[in-house]
Amino acid sequence: LAECLKSIDRIEEALQILAEATQFYPQESKIHCLFVLYLRDCGRIEEAIAKAEEASSLLPNDFALKLQSHLLLPILYNEPSEIELYRQRFSQGLQILLLEIDLSNSKAIDNAIEGLKLQTNFYLHYQGLNDVELQKQYGQLLHRILAVKYPQWSQPIAMPAAIDGEKIRIGYISTCMRDNVVGRVFVGWLRNCDRQQFEIYSYSIHRQQDNLTQQFQRYSDTFHHI
Q: pLDDT category, 120, cuts 50, 70, 90?
């Protein structure tokens, strides 16, 4: 019901539904997470963080709520000074998560995996700063979780030596090889690639195909729709 209300821009009613739902079902992590994200999406970031911290205290073993309580970021900022404030909070939160993450048993590992599905660092780049180091740290967190869950896919793969005259192969895999913001921005990576040096393989993993998908196919040496 909350999702339906939000989809027709009745956000206050959606928030009220979720507030009631957290009272009826206080142990349901996904309801808390949705409530936090809706508050964030309508610009009430301080309220969202407070709710995330409150829910994380209530469900201390839930990794999704830990991620929200430590890494939640605004979409937009009221003042430039807020950027550094939230960036520092994000950085400190990453360090806490890297130190405290529990991967001691299968239940804890699965909990961490589920948490990753509900929280990303998508809005970090909205700050307009150099995110390389923070992205590396975030990648370390994801790698630690996924390497424990899927050790068979976490071993280093030897890079074959380049043969003289052979092009370097680049592979792209995405759900966004279609007409959306991401597709429109990044099709240029393929269109402007130096074909004398590189060979492009593309793997579209979204059911939708359109005119932009055809551009991705045109600019790829090999294209697969999966």
A: confident
